[in-house]
Amino acid sequence: MTQPEQPKSTADEPWPVRVVSQKIGAWVAKLGWVWVDGQVAQISRRPGASVVFLTLRDPSADLSLTVTTHRDVLDAGAPELAEGARVTLHAKPEFYPARGSLSLRADEIRQVGLGELLARLERLKKLLAAEGLFARERKRRLPFLPRRIGLITGRASAAERDVLMNTRRRWPSVDFRVVNVAVQGPTAVTQIIDALAVLDDDPTIDVIVLARGGGGVEDLLPFSDEALCRAVFAARTPVVSAIGHETDAPLVDYVADVRASTPTDAAKRVVPDLAEETRLIEHARHRLDRAIGTMLDREAQRLQAWRSRPALARPEALVDQRAADVAALRDRAGRCVDHRLRRADDDLRHTLARLRALSPAATLQRGYAIVQRADGHVVRAATEVAPDDLLRVRLADGELRASVRETG
Known about the structure:
five-stranded parallel sheet, CATH 2.40.50.140, 4 domains, 13 strands, OB-fold_nuc-bd_dom, alpha/beta, five-stranded mixed barrel, exodeoxyribonuclease VII activity, Rossmann fold, 12 helices
């Protein structure tokens, strides 16, 4: 048999505080027993008390819960538990109406050992690699000379001193914006993520450096946190990871755009060496001077060679040569025309002589005559005419009219 549904609260019929507390407690109780992973931020052992109070903090967020457990449970599962340790506990959430607070009641506590931590990190490493957070093609190139460098590191730490000192030694005018955070402990991850967000939103920052000195695996654990790795991957500004020593390899090293083996190495990667760049510029300047000198010498020799050529040494010589060529061609043309005219004249005289030799007029000059009938027909035989025919006799000088009396 189902219980009748309680009327909803209204402005006219509000619920009393005890009813709200009862309902919250009922909803919380529905969650049941759960396994919880977190970092111990505080331990409170009161002398003579059988209950131990823990503050369990999420390493990746600014969240914490109070945990209550029996002293025997703590001594059995984690007798050497200290603040900052990573634990896994079996607990049930409980809501206390009298104080309006939520806490966890644990019946089993396990301190996470180094082996288990390494196993978790390896699983997380494979997960992030499968998602492409370590992909080389997604890493960005650092600017050659950043306008301003953002530095996230511990306050007054050796890592901060190494980065600042070595960077300014290489490039004295470099500008930094330093954000000091906790680099280990329960608040380290949230502080680093917040500092990363602040520097990433600063338009004057061209590169961000995460720097921390060496330490054990547990000391460097914040830099292998999943939330921090994803925040570094999502940053728009290139990130350089300079965590620990050469042998240390937290997961943020694989996500960052550039991994520096040490904070000192990070200084070498983010800015060029002024002395080295000056030397390279001087070397390039000398090479450029030599190249320009060689080119000028070559071009001067080329100009001198051009100037020594006859066309430029005596420009009028070309005109004189062309004038001589024109005169020679004119003389040749005159001789050729004259020769052709003389030859034509000789041909004409020879032709005229032959013409005269073959002309009937020349025959007539020798005493011959040409006899023609009245119709102009030349008479070549006596049989061609008859008596009384009128004939025309052409002489060398004039002509005669004659009549045929008889033919023989």
